[in-house]
Amino acid sequence: MLTLDLNDPRPLHEQVAAAVRQAVASGVATPGQRLPSARELAAALGVNANTVLRALRDLRDEGVLEFRRGRGVSVLRPPDGRQVLLRRSRELLEEAGRYGYRPEDVIEMIKELS
């Protein structure tokens, strides 16, 4: 169900979260469906179980997954891309501010990329 790209520079937990997010968004994993255990996912992906747990916690915080004691982890709803992008944009602007960049500067940088 999930695969990772070993050439991807992102941290492994982000790659795992992205893979699960994609599975849910594409309908491979549907609301109410229970996911395999973190150990099973880790073994299938060839990563540490703590890496998978961190990814699953991130997705829980996004409202994509639900943790239920005794029932494991299940899909709650598809990811809301707009909310994820807003959160990441906020983080980007905070990081840019630490380097002395204004929001207008970041907008110009993004325009250069497109």
TrEMBL record:
Q: Which residues form the HTH gntR-type domain?
A: 10-78
Q: Name one Pfam family in it.
A: GntR
| Keyword terms, alphabetized | DNA-binding, Transcription, Transcription regulation
A GO term, aspect molecular function:
DNA-binding transcription factor activity
> Can you tell me which residues the record assigns to a coiled coil?
none
InterPro entries documented for this protein: Tscrpt_reg_HTH_GntR (IPR000524), WH-like_DNA-bd_sf (IPR036388), WH_DNA-bd_sf (IPR036390)
Query: SMART domains from the xrefs?
Result: HTH_GNTR (SM00345)
Q: Does the keyword Transcription regulation apply?
A: yes
User: Superkingdom of the source?
Assistant: Bacteria
Name of this protein: GntR family transcriptional regulator
**Species annotation:** Sphaerisporangium rufum
> What does the organism's lineage look like at the top?
Bacteria, Bacillati, Actinomycetota, Actinomycetes, Streptosporangiales
